[in-house]
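TICKET: design request
STATUS: open
ATTACHED STRUCTURE:
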């Protein structure tokens, strides 16, 4: 599946020496406040399967793929439903909600604007399918991203490093000179396995400090100067 061509963004070659060659953003729970929406949709689908869903169940899936979520739901309920139908219901529920409203996380718009003004390329790298990324790009502003990588466009999703390695390669950037912003342990694991500098903004699940990892409470605490300090 090909990635839609976005509004042209600065190339890696314009980035000042010593700063990040690119900034790679997760989507759900990091740029947009969507985990609560996922909880609503998962609860609806679980009810259709004849089971019950809770925040504790959701925690098992944060930062993971749709296929993993579907398999987990079918395992919990023992339902004989077609996995493709379960996945379709999940995507339908999320797409409908995101088309109506995309709730941004505090500080997201300001950080994206600062990075774009500095001429640093950015990419959106998500485990969500392309169908869910498109309304987010429309709402957030395609001009902020040089490209995007969806969960249904890679062979292995987070916590595998493939999504972030793919984004870096397409940008012509060295992974070690990229900064990733993530909210979940799965996403952080993917970023660190790719060799990227990582900033964790924990959401549903805690992400402990670790060598080479910066942990903050909100995107409001993230500035371009901070990102530059991680790849200097």
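STATUS: resolved
RESOLUTION: sequence designed for all positions
ATTACHED SEQUENCE:
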């Amino acid at each position: 599946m090909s990635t839609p061509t976005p509004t042209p963004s600065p190339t890696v070659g314009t980035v000042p020496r010593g700063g990040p060659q690119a900034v790679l953003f997760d989507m759900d729970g990091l740029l947009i406040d969507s985990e609560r929406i996922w909880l609503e949709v998962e609860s609806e689908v679980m009810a259709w399967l004849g089971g019950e869903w809770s925040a504790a169940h959701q925690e098992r899936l944060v930062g993971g793929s749709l296929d993993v979520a579907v398999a987990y739901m079918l395992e919990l309920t023992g339902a004989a439903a077609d996995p493709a139908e379960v996945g379709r219901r999940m995507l339908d529920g999320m797409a409908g909600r995101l088309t109506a409203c995309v709730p941004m996380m505090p500080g997201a718009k300001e950080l994206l604007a600062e990075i774009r003004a500095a001429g640093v390329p950015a990419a959106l790298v998500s485990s969500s399918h392309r169908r869910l990324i498109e309304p987010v790009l429309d709402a957030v502003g395609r001009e902020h991203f040089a490209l995007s990588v969806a969960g249904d466009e890679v062979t292995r999703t987070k916590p595998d490093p493939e999504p972030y390695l793919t984004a870096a390669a397409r940008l012509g950037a060295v992974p070690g000179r990229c900064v990733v912003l993530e909210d979940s342990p799965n996403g952080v694991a993917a970023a660190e396995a790719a060799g990227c500098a990582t900033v964790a903004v924990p959401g549903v699940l805690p992400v402990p400090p670790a060598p080479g990892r910066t942990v903050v409470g909100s995107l409001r605490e993230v500035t371009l100067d901070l990102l530059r300090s991680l790849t200097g």
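CLOSING REMARK: The longest strand covers residues 178-182. The radius of gyration is 17 Å.
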